[in-house]
Amino acid sequence: MENIIGKRIKEIRMSLGYTQQQFADSVDISKPMVSYIESGKKTPSRETVSKISNLANISTDYIMGLSDNKTSEEPSASDVMLELKYYIDRVETFDDETKEFAIKKIKALISGLDIEENK
C-alpha cells in the first residue's frame, strides 16, 4: 500500500525547513513518531493531522490523501468531524441534566436547519 500520508507529511515538514525534532515539538508528538509516520509504520491521530494542518496552513484532506488541493476555502470533512468531536467531548463532561438540555437544543437546531434546507 502506498504511504501517501507519510509522504505528504514529510513533504510538509521539509517545506517548513524543520528537522524531525523541530516538527515533533511543533505538533506535540515524539521524534520517533514523526519517523514512524513518514515511513508509513504508523498513522497520525486526527489531532496530530489537525495540528499539522494548522501549522502549515494545509487542508487535512490533502494530508490524508483525500484531495490533491493543499488549501480549501471550505472546511474539509475532516475539519468538520474534528470540530464536532470537540463539542461532543465537551457535552460528555456535563452533568446529566445539562447534557440532556444540550442534546435537546442540538436536536432543535438541526430540525430548524432541515426545515430551512427543504424550503
Automatic annotation (TrEMBL):
<dbReference type="InterPro" id="IPR001387">
    <property type="entry name" value="Cro/C1-type_HTH"/>
</dbReference>
<feature type="domain" description="HTH cro/C1-type">
    <location>
        <begin position="9"/>
        <end position="63"/>
    </location>
</feature>
<protein>
    <recommendedName>
        <fullName>HTH cro/C1-type domain-containing protein</fullName>
    </recommendedName>
</protein>
<dbReference type="InterPro" id="IPR010982">
    <property type="entry name" value="Lambda_DNA-bd_dom_sf"/>
</dbReference>
<dbReference type="Pfam" id="PF01381">
    <property type="entry name" value="HTH_3"/>
</dbReference>
<dbReference type="GO" id="GO:0003677">
    <property type="term" value="F:DNA binding"/>
</dbReference>
<keyword id="KW-0238">DNA-binding</keyword>
